[in-house]
Amino acid sequence: MSVAAKGAPLLSRVVGYSVAIANNAGNIIRDIMKKGELGIVEKESAQDLQTEADRAAQRSIITALQKYFPKSTIIGEEGEEEVKDLSGQVFDPTADSSVSGITCPSHLTSVAEEELVIWVDPLDGTAEYTQAHECRISGHLGVCKTLGVSCESLLDHVTVLIGIASGGKAVGGVIHQPYYNYQNPGSKLGRTIWGIVGGSVGGMPLTAPPDGKLIVTTTRSHSSSTVNDAIAALSPTEVLRVGGAGHKVMMLLEGKAHVYVFASPGCKKWDTCAPQAVLEAAGGVLSDIQGKVIPYHASAPHRNSTGVLASAAGQDHQAFLTKIPQHVKDNLKA
Ligand SMILES: Nc1ncnc2c1ncn2[C@@H]1O[C@H](COP(=O)(O)O)[C@@H](O)[C@H]1OP(=O)(O)O
Ligand SMILES: [Mg+2]
Ligand SMILES: [Mg+2]
Ligand SMILES: [Mg+2]
User: Fold this and answer.
1) How confident is the model at residue 280 (pLDDT cuts 50, 70, 90)?
2) Which atom of ligand 1 is closest in space to residue 124's alpha carbon?
């Protein structure tokens, strides 16, 4: 049933429209990279940047969500300021009926618009987006001397995150990856995965991580001794240091890693709401580093000060939590 169909549960429509809205934001992100004027500003620190792509993507996402779901509460990473200047254009997601098969569990079919809190990260992986740009303008080709990897390879760490919460819980999510398939020039770029907890997941095949290994994925740009102590405590066979919360959860979903651990207060609610909903719709688990449920009601503090631990479906989340040393848990205070 197309999500636009009358009678589709509200949550299904919000997820379905959010897929189209996130795809449109992906076009904006790619266009700004192509133009090359990123308009980079520093927020809380040099590790906390904001570009014109973050701002323009947020404007397009939030104005569309406000138009079609005016009674919901919408919270974007880049704050109120970045939504104001309107060229009058509001993206219309209703024309896109590419998404079908969104099923909503019975306990969520009657969720009202006023109950929804939508957490928006218009561009997750800003550090990687800006780094790839820096490399491009400095003429790096192939493997970048500073990074040790190809600059382009950072681009698919970027995702657009639209997370939907009801009753303080992550219930629906959309993760769009604008640079998916960048390795194949000329091919269609981008993919979008979506899910409703207790309902369906769609947009990419789900694969279990390999047996006999323990692949941990974690930050590449916001590390600390506490972050590294938590990783070591899991005794991984491999550590994949990549950017983006959405990107790392996608790795759990496509079998590239068993667990994502980030023992840092750096992530916010907009980084984890959408990934958590999609991961849990697929049978995985996402909690804070103590194993506590992350709250997503409108008045919840934006910062996830007690870190993130996410496990792929079929993994023993509790066993990972038990291995996290007490000093790491003590360092991350609510
Ligand atoms: N210290 C920090 N300052 C600002 N944002 C952070 C910090 N640590 C993590 N984040 C956000 O959490 C995401 C996941 O962290 P990491 O990429 O290091 O694994 C980042 O992409 C960034 O989101 P964003 O890029 O949307 O600002
Ligand atoms: Mg940011
Ligand atoms: Mg983010
Ligand atoms: Mg962001």
Assistant:
1) very high
2) 26
Rounded distance between C-alpha atoms, residue 266 and residue 246, angstroms = 14
Cβ contact 252:312 at 8 Å? yes
Q: Whose CA is nearest to atom 3 of ligand 1?
A: 48
Predicted TM-score of the model (pTM): 0.96
Question: Does 207 qualify as catalytic in the annotation?
Answer: no
User: How many other CB atoms are there within 10 angstroms of residue 149's CB atom?
Assistant: 13
At 1 the pLDDT is 40
Q: What is the average per-residue pLDDT within 183-192?
A: 93
Compute how many other C-beta atoms are within 10 angstroms of the C-beta atom of residue 115.
18
Is 271 labelled as part of a ligand binding site? yes
126 is catalytic: yes
State whether the beta carbon of 82 lies less than 6 angstroms from ligand 1.
no
124 is in an annotated binding site: yes
CB 284 within 8 A of CB 313: yes
Rounded alpha-carbon distances, angstroms, from residue 209 to 174, 184, 215, 256, 279: 22, 25, 8, 6, 14
User: Residue 6 above 70 pLDDT?
Assistant: no
From the candidates 51, 63, 126, 219, give the one annotated as an active-site residue: 126
- Residue 129: helix, strand or coil by DSSP? helix
